[in-house]
Amino acid sequence: MMPTTLFGSQIGAQILQLLPSILVATLLFILLIALTIQAFCKARQISATENAAKVKPTENEEVIDKSHLFQFNPSEVDNQLSANSSLIE
Fold first, then answer.
1. 24, 15 in Cβ contact below 8 A?
2. What is the pTM of this model?
3. DSSP classification of residue 69
4. pLDDT for position 60
5. DSSP 3-state helix, strand, coil percentages of the chain (rounded to 5)?
6. What is the pLDDT of residues 34-45, one digit of tens each?
7. Which 3-state string (H, E, C) describes 17-54?
């Protein structure tokens, strides 16, 4: 890795001396956009793989409906409080 890094920095220094600064900035911006797109595509690919690997219930397994656990009924709470108030006194 070290020789390739040194070689790349030598080429980069030569390009920096030969080309105007606006062109170097434009090339760096294009490189930034390309690497961003590449990272985004890789993240979508990994996300799709992880979502496909999630455990799904088979036909024989029953899906349990737990939505009733999150419903709030004030009259039930009042009834329970009044039933338990005799224990408190």
1. yes
2. 0.50
3. G
4. 58
5. 75, 0, 25
6. 999 999 999 999
7. HHCCHHHHHHHHHHHHHHHHHHHHHHHHHHHHHHHHCC
In angstroms, what CA-CA distances link 65 with 4, 30, 60?
A: 59, 51, 16
The encoded tokens of residue 15 equal 């390009």
- Tokens 């920096």 map to which residue? 16
pLDDT of residue 68: 64
- Token pair, residue 9, equals 């920095």
Q: Are 57 and 63 in contact (CB under 8 A)?
A: yes
pLDDT along the chain (89 residues), means of 10: 87 91 94 97 92 68 65 69 62
Q: Give the residue among 34, 33, 13 at the shortest CA–CA distance from 24.
A: 13
**Residue with the two structure tokens 């080429």:** 11
